[in-house]
Amino acid sequence: MPAVVNREECVSCGTCVEECPENAITMDDEEIAVVNVDKCTECGSCVEACPSEAISIE
After folding, report:
1. Could you tell me the pTM of the whole model?
2. The CATH number of the domain covering residues in 3-57
3. Where are the domains of the chain?
């Protein structure tokens, strides 16, 4: 399963966007992280980088 963002926990910092080696994460119109499931390789970089623990791999 690709990474999943808890929209309520995301603090819109963009750290996950910067840390994703596959460029699989962008910010939506509300500045909430969104994962492109076709690009996500489940590496966990975003999970480790997220300061609010809003991202998980299920």
Report:
1. 0.92
2. 3.30.70.20
3. 3-57
